């Protein structure tokens, strides 16, 4: 569904209700945490809303919540003499990359078609330049909606923060802490300046879940387990670790409002709440898919033209109509 529908040179702004997903995977606060983490990984989703029995929204169980909850068990691994996992053992090596000179709208289309939330930007020699992600694509969308249609390349929008760069010999625990302390969703692994792999939150969560299971199994065989081991071995519930402060929106929030929420928060998904009940959800991907055709400059366009967004109908240039 296009982000903006037109009729006789009038634009009708879509709202959350027009693009939100209504069939959702949800969790209950009483659900077992390990089982819920396994479910997120199995269903290939980065989080799920938490509701009570009557559908009242309570919070979100995100990858970041899960990493934080499992990290204590991973910290105990060395105490129990378990293998210390390094980045080289769980990083992703087969990567989708994009070039800095690629048109930013083609890059967004590439992310959508590949069903990935971001990709490293490299030069022709495979040297790392930056990251282009759904988050940076939100900046493109905001510019398109507020300032016109920017025709530019990936290099102008990619994230250049080199604090996210990691090494093959870094430890799982260090990477878990890095994800806890930062908004990053992926960390490039470099050998010199050459990109050799990437670690995502999902990669860490898979590795943590395996190691945490080993820790719990090993601690159960200890004759005199420490209080910390006993605490780690106790069953945790989703309600104990869920994020109750996650950003939300209402069904009437327009696309610019949704875009701004994504830009101003680290979240990839917005639960849509009406009268306290969960009625749907919008992800960054949903928003980009809805807006993609209207963001891309028309080849026949005479130049950059402003695309207005508000709750009211406004006249628009014919090239947008």
UniProtKB/TrEMBL annotation:
SUPFAM superfamilies: CBS-domain pair (SSF54631). Residues 20-76, 91-147, 158-214, 242-300 form the CBS domain. Keywords: CBS domain. CDD domains: CBS_pair_SF. It comes from the Bacteria. Residues 216-239, 290-321 are annotated as: Disordered. This is Inosine 5'-monophosphate dehydrogenase.
């Amino acid at each position: 569904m296009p982000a903006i529908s037109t009729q006789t040179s009038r634009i009708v702004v879509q709202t959350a209700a027009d693009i939100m997903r209504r069939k959702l995977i949800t969790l209950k606060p009483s659900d077992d945490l390990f089982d819920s983490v396994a479910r997120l990984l199995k269903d290939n989703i980065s989080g799920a809303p938490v509701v009570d029995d009557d559908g009242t929204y309570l919070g979100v169980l995100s990858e970041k919540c899960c990493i934080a909850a499992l990290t204590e068990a991973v910290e105990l691994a060395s105490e129990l003499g378990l293998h210390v996992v390094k980045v080289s053992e769980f990083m992703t090596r087969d990567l989708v990359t994009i070039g800095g000179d690629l048109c930013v709208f083609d890059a967004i289309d590439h992310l959508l078609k590949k069903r990935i939330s971001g990709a490293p930007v490299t030069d022709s020699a495979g040297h790392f330049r930056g990251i282009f992600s759904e988050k940076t694509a939100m900046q493109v969308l905001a510019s398109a909606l507020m300032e016109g249609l920017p025709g530019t390349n990936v290099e102008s929008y990619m994230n250049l923060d080199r604090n996210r760069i990691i090494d093959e010999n870094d430890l799982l625990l260090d990477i878990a802490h890095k994800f806890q302390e930062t908004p990053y969703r992926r960390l490039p692994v470099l050998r010199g300046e050459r990109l050799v792999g990437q670690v995502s939150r999902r990669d860490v969560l898979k590795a943590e879940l395996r190691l945490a299971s080993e820790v719990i199994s090993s601690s159960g065989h200890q004759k005199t387990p420490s209080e910390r081991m006993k605490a780690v071995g106790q069953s945790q519930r989703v309600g104990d670790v869920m994020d109750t402060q996650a950003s939300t929106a209402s069904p009437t929030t327009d696309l610019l409002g949704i875009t701004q929420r994504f830009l101003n928060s680290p979240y990839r998904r917005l639960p849509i709440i009406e009268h306290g009940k969960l009625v749907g959800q919008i992800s960054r991907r949903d928003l980009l898919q809805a807006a993609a055709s209207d963001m891309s400059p028309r080849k026949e366009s005479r130049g950059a033209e402003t695309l207005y967004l508000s709750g009211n109908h406004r006249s628009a240039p014919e090239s947008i109509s």
